[in-house]
Amino acid sequence: MLYITGTPIGNLEDMSYRAVKTLNEVDEILCEDTRTTKKLTNHFDITTPLRSYHDFNKEEVTEDIVEKIRAGKHFALVTDAGMPVISDPGFELVSRLQDENLPYIVIPAASAFTMGLVASGIASYEFTYFGFLPKSSSKRQEKLSEIMHHNMTSVLYESPHRMKALLEDISKIDDERIVSISREITKKFEQHYRTTATDLLSKLDKEIPLKGEFVVVISAYEEEAVQFTGSAKEHVSSLIADGMKPKDAIKLVAELRGLKKQEVYDEFHK
């Protein structure tokens, strides 16, 4: 059996009884960083052996795990914080167990992005989780443009040293867009702010220290809020100027204006 076991995202008191019991009873704990997980197991007097499972060894380790589960061994898969598999390795192992018809169980815990969404005060009926933005400048701008023109609430992670640049880029595209940022969730200095990106910029390094991982929630794109009244061609051009790919801009303009993609394509390429 594999137990996909959620752990606290910051406050160790959030560890569930079921998770502690499971980590005590399995034969081995698979973890991203044994040093991080050791702090958790030491806190709860768990003596189960730890084994590294990360992006650099997952292929070779997966084969061994599958063979041992088939032979009757029990494993727990944990991440450094929160739910395994989300923005972390693990889906490959789950997929392999499905293919082999081998058992697994999910033991729940919090994820930072769901906590940030709940605390944001932004509509969460429909949302998309984007994880971390690409590191490459061009790909980062392209992805952010997609997010800023997305018709659902968007949730992403950002590191402290990139937060200022992110809020500046959001402000350039739409300085009135409502954004929420959360940091140090479940910890002593937990913070949540919801306002415009421009206003958030003025609070960085003052009211909001640039420390700890940030959860960023961006309200959905609404055409009415942008009040673009030009032609379809001009509308496409403005989206491209914001960093969107031409084909994506054409598709979005067609959806927003109730036109066929071919109509917008033809007008844009006149």
From TrEMBL:
Record's catalysed reaction(s): cytidine(1402) in 16S rRNA + S-adenosyl-L-methionine = 2'-O-methylcytidine(1402) in 16S rRNA + S-adenosyl-L-homocysteine + H(+)
One Pfam family name from the record? Answer: TP_methylase
Q: Does the keyword Transferase apply?
A: yes
Taking the first listed entry, what is the main subcellular location of this protein, grouped into a coarse class?
A: cytoplasm
The protein's location, in the record's own words, is: Cytoplasm
- Please provide the record's keywords in A-Z order: Cytoplasm, Methyltransferase, rRNA processing, S-adenosyl-L-methionine, Transferase
Q: Which GO terms describe its molecular function?
A: rRNA (cytosine-2'-O-)-methyltransferase activity
The EC number(s) given in the record are 2.1.1.198
InterPro entries according to UniProt:
4pyrrol_Mease, 4pyrrol_Methylase_sf, 4pyrrole_Mease_sub1, 4pyrrole_Mease_sub2, rRNA_ssu_MeTfrase_I
Q: Where is the Tetrapyrrole methylase domain?
A: 1-200
The superkingdom listed in its UniProt entry is Bacteria
GO annotation, cellular component aspect:
cytoplasm
* Function recorded in the entry: Catalyzes the 2'-O-methylation of the ribose of cytidine 1402 (C1402) in 16S rRNA.
Q: Which NCBIfam families match?
A: 16S rRNA (cytidine(1402)-2'-O)-methyltransferase
* Assigned protein family: Belongs to the methyltransferase superfamily. RsmI family.
Name this polypeptide is given: Ribosomal RNA small subunit methyltransferase I
This protein's species is Jeotgalicoccus meleagridis
Q: Which gene encodes it?
A: rsmI
